[in-house]
Amino acid sequence: MMTLCLLAACGGEAGTGNNTDELALDIRADYLSMSGCTARMDVTADYGERVYTYTLDLSYQKDGDTTLAVVAPEEVAGVTARLSGEETFLEFDGVSLETGPLDDTGLSPLSAAPALLRCAREGFIAESALETVGESECLKVVCRDPEVQPGTGTEVSLWFDAGTHALKQGEILSDGARIVACIFTQFSMTT
To answer: Domains in the chain, please, with CATH?
Structure first.
């Protein structure tokens, strides 16, 4: 019972009640039990003075590598990153893709999707609420360190389709400023 309470942020600040907490726990269980997923996403990385937008194809394996292939922009389409443990490998003929850190934790555009998936599985759920995104009813989950105030440190917001549990959107904020936004145009889990 204590574990469930911690996962659902019992006594948390802005949860809208048991229904969203139960849905958040159901979604977490799906992401903990999945063996992998594939997705296509539009990623916006904000470095302050410059903003980059990419379309990436993601292939994630729980017990294997994560592969991200750039689909757009056309100039770097085909660049593939393979994340294996703590190492990242870029693969393409002489083309370079800026993947430098967005913040002091080392977060980069290529590590954003794995960070979102890790948060879906392990992040402390500080808030949960139902929202409409486009034409879908979604559960918005906000994950952050329970010891810090909202708007400080790293905060992750995830939007899941309330029916299918597919990840629809994700944002990573650093000290209140959005540094990465991901919109998933396709998402499929394997169990």
So the answer is: 13-189 (2.50.20.10)
Q: Note the pLDDT tens digit of each residue in 1-41.
A: 223 333 333 333 344 446 999 999 999 999 999 999 999 99
Q: Could you tell me which residue, 85 or 24, shows the higher pLDDT?
A: 24
Please state the three-class secondary structure of the chain as a single string. Answer: CHHHHHHHCCCCCCCCCHHHHHHHHHHHHHHHHCCEEEEEEEEEEECCCCEEEEEEEEEEECCCCEEEEEEECHHHCCCEEEEECCEEEEECCCCCCCCCCCCCCCCCHHHHHHHHHHHHHHCCEEEEEEEEECCEEEEEEEEECCCCCCCCCEEEEEEEECCCCCEEEEEEEECCEEEEEEEEEEEEEEC
Spatial distance between the Cα atoms of 167 and 182, rounded to a whole number of angstroms: 10
